[in-house]
Amino acid sequence: MTAKNMEDLVSLCKRRGFIFPSNDVYGGMKGLYDFGPMGVELKMNLKNSWWKSIVYERDDIEGLDSTILTSPTVLKYSGHEDTFSDPLVDCRVCKARFRADQLESSECPKGGPLSKCKTKDLTEARAFNLMFKTAIGPVDDGSSFAYLRPETAQQIFVNFKNIIDSTSRTPPFGIAQIGKSFRNEITPRNFIFRVREFEQMELEFFVKPGSDEDWHKYWVDQRLKWWSEQGVSSDRLKLLEVEKEELSHYSKATFDIMYEFPHGLEELEGVANRTDFDLGSHTKNQEDYEINAKVTPNKSSTTKLAIQDLESKKWYIPFVIEPSAGVERGVLAILNEAYTQEDENNRTVLKLKSHLSPIKASVIPLKRNNTDLVNLANKIKVELQSLGLGRVMIENSGNIGKNYRRHDEIGTPMCITIDFETLENQSVTVRDRDTMKQERVDLSNIPTYYSNYFKNN
Fold first, then answer.
1. Among 169, 171, 241, 346, which is 20 to 30 Å from 130 by CA?
2. Do 86 and 130 form a contact (C-beta atoms < 8 A)?
3. Which is nearest to 410 in space by CA: 1, 76, 15?
4. Domain match, 105 and 160 both
5. How far apart are CA 43 and CA 328, in angstroms?
């Protein structure tokens, strides 16, 4: 079951502390959002799940955390300075700005679709750079600047030799990174789907030329499987092969994993075969290699980004398979999947996978500020927290019904209630989020019960 519309998700996110408009006290800034107490936990859990799957559970991938500030030289040879732009038009009447390739779906500020606006007077399209610049050094005279990286991938490529020298890796192997990226989107829209500051989960997987198509298919299958494990229904996923005329300049083939968001079918993750374009663009002595991709001649690089085949002794530039997903888009899809409105129970519940739930368990003293109940609740909370499965929370408001409803809405898998019977027979009430079933469990068995729940769900 999913949300009926985006408004339901936006309302829940603000009400329950998942996501807030950034700089809200001053009217907010379009395309920027802050993740609140519940949102930051959900976001971290999603990233941890990705990292665990990509890095910890494999023996062929290393991690990286690179700088956000990026040299203009890197983005010159990657092609970003020349190609990373959108075609824009302005309306001479209302002064609004639109993407030239999205006029049919654009809304006029005066109301209604732009295509039906009778007074519009549009300029010719012109390119608009999507990258943010920032000055470096004490004087902002334009002579020394950097870009806020538009993607995490380029710093992986320029660290390629550092990784292989320090780990002795040979293809096939990958480098993974999670981090912030920045794009000066002209029309940020659809809540956190398209924003100006966002996080990416990117893997660059390096393979021998000739094996790239098999690896490409492998990673498409792996990524579909992973999204299913996060609770995203396969019924709302669609695999789209990008047509050749729409491929990025570096791509041999790209598959987009599309998801049915509340606002429509859009890209959740892309899996691209980038060929040898990236390492070929950044390597020195390009003429020494049989580079398949069309690259800009590079006389600035100081490093050879190639691998020697141990059998033939020939040097080659590896091809790259890139699964790349936006964290915010992932959060939005997962929230949409989990959102459930149960009219028969008069409740809204987030049926999140337990490993993604912001709060793993809530411990609730039945009577507010009763010393015996609160002390015991704190003891249980500390014991469960020490197991390291995620955040455990004390709810000491005294209203058991409201506590249950609150934790239903934030997706807490279980609530543990400490009542006066607990003081007599050392048992507690455990309530399951999805079934609302309650059972008595001996206090001494709670840590085992809790651990087993997260092993089995």
1. 241
2. yes
3. 15
4. no
5. 8
